[in-house]
Design goal:
The structure is a single chain. This protein has helices at residues 5-18, 28-31, 53-56, 75-86, 102-105, 125-136, 145-154, 157-164, 177-182, 203-212, 267-279, 304-318, 330-335, 337-346, 366-372, 385-398, 416-428, 460-484, 487-518, and strands at 22-26, 94-96, 112-116, 169-173, 193-196, 219-221, 241-243, 245-246, 263-264, 285-288, 323-325, 327-328, 355-362, 401-409, 434-440. By secondary structure, it is α/β, with parallel strands linked by helices. The strands form four sheets. It has a six-stranded parallel β-sheet. The chain has a four-stranded parallel β-sheet with strand order 12-13-14-15, sandwiched between helices. The model is unreliable at 1-8 and 521-542 (pLDDT under 50). The longest helix has 32 residues, at 487-518. The protein is 40% helix and 12% strand.
């Protein structure tokens, strides 16, 4: 029997009237394409307070058709869709849905809703970094945008109505699912099954069980699949994100990707997904990896031959359009500076052409590095870390990368000397084109269920380091706006920044001057700089 496109469309329309058996979705903050600028997703960490919302909410656009099927999707959710289609489910059964159109896709036939989440309860580092500054400025603060959108999704009227009937199962996964598991809020949120780690290996079985009415495990962990077994995308990936590797394998105790094995995807798979995105109207190509210079390597050492083959293939496929990477590591950069230069040549960096990249520093202290992340510096010695960071920063600067570095405040066993050494390293990086994000320690990775570092734990030395980073961010934020954002977002963000940046920078300088004048004594001996935030409540959301 030949099934025409018209027949498929008719069947899909019939399915949507009674609801799709499997609905895959995410909150608006996760599903949006941020008007084509991936970096703008960080704005979801801002409060949902009316003071901020009118400027930020227009960023979170959604593109879906009349029946509610997304035209672009979050990468992880797209892989789950691919896994289900590979296992025999059809598009008449499965939909990647617009979270604002659940009334069109959930119905009597719906047996399972799968949700991916990044920061569902607002406990992630982005929210912490933002909230610290906003509270310090004595500006009104409320629930973060990303947490608010998750709450709106999980309490959607249509979603709740069919859950209350008892036939619909809710399965939640994604990088932020630990927050729900570790706060004990799974039951109050009405979540039947939590999926941790890589979900593609286990999703088909779980959704099949949901359709058949078989009870689901409360918590399950997926396994790492070989690259050829990872399903292909069927829906274009928002902002043109394409995986070139998965995992890291360096073993940093605080980080999830470093706990899973490093794998590289074959070039034919990478090109297939670039083409899929292009056909879906997404011109940009963002090659995703947690350590891109190790593409094709079976060790911690870069593989120049494999990287060159990848660069040649992507360059030919993109046909003159620019492409980029998202993460480099200091150790990989320093092992092969020549390879870094080759990457810059293929990306045509130089002159007026820049590219942005993220690099994790985490600490300026070799002692803290040795305790919690010794693999981060390999094959070099931990005592060389500050020197390696500065040399890598110089190389990246000269080759026209604008770098977003990260450091972590509040790591376990951190001493005042560790904080001071990190602050000195921040000072050493100020002459380069960069910003430094002061991540506030959260109990993830190998530190799960440990005490989370909060405002009440900040010493004066922590505040000085935090404000030092924030001052650099405000100074160099214009670089990211000019070279990363579309003209529309440049106009919108510049207007807001020009209004408030000068005032905020003056306040930060005043606070730092006060801190240095008072000395860096422990907050336990003085009045706290900020009030302690309320703990996470475990009651149900209604």
């Amino acid at each position: 029997m030949i099934i025409t496109e018209e027949r498929v469309e008719e069947q899909t329309t019939m399915a949507s009237r009674k609801g799709f058996e499997i609905v895959l979705t995410a909150s608006r903050a996760v599903m949006s394409n941020y008007r084509g600028n991936q970096g703008m997703g960080l704005s979801s960490a801002f409060p949902s307070h009316p003071l901020f919302a009118p400027f930020i909410q227009p960023i979170f656009t959604l593109e879906s058709d009349e029946e509610g099927r997304m035209q672009q999707t979050h990468l992880g959710l797209g892989k789950i869709e691919g896994a289900l289609l590979d296992e025999g489910f059809s598009r008449n059964q499965v939909i990647v849905a617009d979270p604002t159109k659940l009334n069109k896709v959930i119905g009597p036939n719906t047996k399972a809703v799968g949700i991916t989440c990044l920061d569902p309860l607002g406990l992630g580092y982005g929210v912490k970094v933002t909230s610290f500054l906003i509270k310090k400025l004595k500006l009104p603060y409320s629930q973060s945008i990303i947490a608010r959108y998750f709450q709106e999704l999980i309490t959607d009227k249509t979603f709740q109505r069919f859950r209350e009937k008892g036939d619909l199962r809710t399965i939640v996964g994604g990088p932020g699912v630990w927050q729900i598991a570790d706060t004990g809020m799974q039951r109050s949120l009405g979540i039947d099954c939590i999926v941790e780690w890589e979900g593609e290996s286990i999703a088909p079985r779980l959704f099949r069980q949901a359709i058949e009415g078989v009870s689901l495990p409360q918590n399950v962990r997926g396994r790492a699949l070989p690259p050829r077994e990872v399903p292909l995308l069927r829906t274009p990936s928002r902002c043109g994100i394409v995986e070139i590797t998965r995992g890291c394998g360096r073993g940093c105790r605080f980080c999830y990707p470093t706990q899973i094995p490093f794998r590289s995807f074959p070039i034919d798979i990478i090109l297939h997904e670039i083409r899929l995105n292009r056909r879906g109207g997404i011109p940009q190509v963002s090659l995703h990896s947690d350590d891109a210079m190790r593409y094709g390597s079976n060790s911690l050492k870069p593989n120049p031959k494999a990287m060159l083959q990848l660069l040649q293939a992507v360059k030919e496929e993109t046909q003159g359009r620019r492409f980029g990477f998202d993460f480099f590591s200091v150790a990989s950069v320093m092992q092969n500076p020549r390879l870094l230069g080759t990457i810059a040549e293929y990306m045509e960096l130089g002159g007026r052409h820049f590219s942005t990249i993220e690099v994790g520093i985490e600490t300026g202290s070799p002692d803290l590095l040795a305790k919690h992340m010794p693999g981060k510096v390999k094959p070099f010695k931990t005592r060389e870390w500050p020197h390696l960071v500065k040399e890598a920063a110089n190389l990246l600067h000269e080759l026209q990368w604008i770098v977003c570095y990260s450091i972590i405040l509040g790591l376990p066993d951190e001493t005042p000397d560790d904080i001071q050494r990190t602050n000195e390293l921040v000072d050493d990086l100020k002459d380069f084109n960069c910003v430094i994000i002061p991540i506030i320690f959260m109990p993830a990775g190998g530190f799960r269920r440990r005490h989370s570092f909060g405002i009440e734990d900040m010493s004066h030395a922590h505040w000085d380091l935090y404000l030092n980073c924030m001052e650099l961010i405000l100074k160099n934020a214009q670089l990211f706006i000019t070279h990363s954002f579309s003209p529309f977002l440049q106009r919108m963000v510049r207007g807001a920044m020009n209004f408030g940046l000068g005032y905020i920078r003056k306040k930060i300088r005043k606070w730092r001057w006060t801190l240095h004048r008072q000395g860096f004594s422990s907050q336990t001996e003085e009045e706290p700089l900020l009030a302690t935030p309320a703990p996470v409540q475990k009651e149900a959301i209604h």
